[in-house]
Amino acid sequence: MWRWLHPYAKPEATYRLNQKLLPWFAVPGILLLVIGMVWALLFAPADYQQGESYRIIFVHVPAAFWSMGFYMGMAIAALSAVVWQIRTAEWAILAIAPIGAVLTFISLFTGAVWGKPMWGTWWEWDARLTAQLILFFLYLGVLALYAAFEDERTGAKAAGILTLIGTVNIPIIHYSVYWWNTLHQQSTISKAITRLEKPSMAPEMLWPLVVCIFAFMLVASALVLLRLNNEILKREVRRPWAQAELLEEKH
Amino acid sequence: MNPRRKKRLTITLSIVGAVAIATGLMLYALSQNIDLFYTPTEIVEGKGAEKTLPEIGQRLRVGGLVVPGSVVRNDESLYVAFHLVGSGEAEVIVEYEGVLPDLFREGQGIVAQGTLVEPNRIVATEVLARHDEEYMPPGLAKELKGIEHVPPSQQKYNNAGNGGAL
């Protein structure tokens, strides 16, 4: 059943697949990002309670959403790397981690900027905020551990195990606002999806938010594909196929 | 799956499982300490299964809704006092001297940090506003909930002290 996956253990096959996939992520991603941002910032109505300040949600929620989503992607790569010892999966960890770290940083930063005018504070050690900060450190830790060994494959193994252990944090981030009293409000979108309730956001605000969430996913995925191809080329630079590829790009 | 991979898979999954269980137990044991604030009911009736009451003089945070009509202001200073209610009946009084966040109004969720001076009275050093996960345009909010929220920059004050009635 998994036989169709086998060719991609070979770096060249993964490289070719990534080349083919890249435009399908990059082009709609950039388009949707422009549409979503213009819609959200210029056309969506202001909020009854927070006025114009609420618009930071259109960056904050997509970034926070995919900071967790890409972590799960990294965990799948880590599991393949640790159990099947596939080199492309090891490089995928390295390709995803900085993108995830940036998404996490964006969510923390926009959260602080949003928190100051609305809550009255930049930062509060509440469960949601703290768990998200731990996610940021996990991403940085994975990157640091990867680079900390003389032998790269040992580093990849260690980083993979840290990634897998870190998945414990993901449900904690998500459920923190339900399990404990927090300053952070409960979720708007996942409540509507998982409990099939009517979303607690007016449709003319919800749609641009959905567009932004998709746009962030596509753009971040395109960046991961680019990074992964760079990692592959860097390590396969002596192979004939990589040489041919680089020569072709020069001309 | 070959036996070596199977072994690695088992080891990896059991490590992750063990860490998950350990973290779960730790968070369960600490759950009362992870709460950011007491609710008014927890201050009046006690918190947790043992109904432990917070001690007088204890520094704590309390979170709840500002009871409509309970906000008292001082004309000469920034002093403000109001009642806070949670999901239950119990109310506590919060006194505060300082600048309130923009979202502060009657019926709003807030979190106050301060010292418990009487069993149901807190002198706050910081008041933060909470907001819920509902977002809607002003017109819809007025229609649905009868709320008309006026940003503080546009609020009309009769004099420097009278803002509570808005």
From TrEMBL, chain A:
Keywords: Cell inner membrane, Cell membrane, Cytochrome c-type biogenesis, Membrane, Transmembrane, Transmembrane helix, Transport
Keyword Cell inner membrane: yes
GO cellular component terms given for this protein: plasma membrane
Domain Cytochrome c assembly protein: 29-184
GO biological process: cytochrome complex assembly
Pfam families, alphabetized: Cytochrom_C_asm (PF01578)
Regions that span the bilayer: 21-43, 63-84, 91-114, 129-149, 161-180, 205-226
Subcellular location: Cell inner membrane; Membrane
Membrane topology listed for this record: Multi-pass membrane protein
Superkingdom to which the source organism belongs: Bacteria
Transmembrane listed as a keyword: yes
GO molecular function, one term: heme transmembrane transporter activity
Function: Required for the export of heme to the periplasm for the biogenesis of c-type cytochromes.
Family of this protein: Belongs to the CcmC/CycZ/HelC family.
Name of the molecule in the record: Heme exporter protein C
From TrEMBL, chain B:
Swiss-Prot/TrEMBL keywords: Cell inner membrane, Cell membrane, Cytochrome c-type biogenesis, Heme, Iron, Membrane, Metal-binding, Signal-anchor, Transmembrane, Transmembrane helix
A Pfam family the protein falls into: CcmE
All ranges on the Extracellular side of the membrane: 30-166
Matching SUPFAM superfamilies: Heme chaperone CcmE
GO process terms (BP): cytochrome complex assembly; protein-heme linkage
Gene designation: ccmE
Location of the protein in the cell: Cell inner membrane; Cell membrane
TM regions (residue ranges): 9-30
Cellular compartments per GO CC: plasma membrane
Protein name, as recorded: Cytochrome c-type biogenesis protein CcmE
Family: Belongs to the CcmE/CycJ family.
Residues exposed to the Cytoplasmic side: 1-8
Source organism per UniProt: Aliidiomarina taiwanensis
Job description of the protein: Heme chaperone required for the biogenesis of c-type cytochromes. Transiently binds heme delivered by CcmC and transfers the heme to apo-cytochromes in a process facilitated by CcmF and CcmH.
InterPro entries for this protein: CcmE (IPR004329), CcmE-like_sf (IPR036127), NA-bd_OB-fold (IPR012340)
Record's keyword annotation contains Iron: yes
The UniProt record lists the keyword Transmembrane: yes
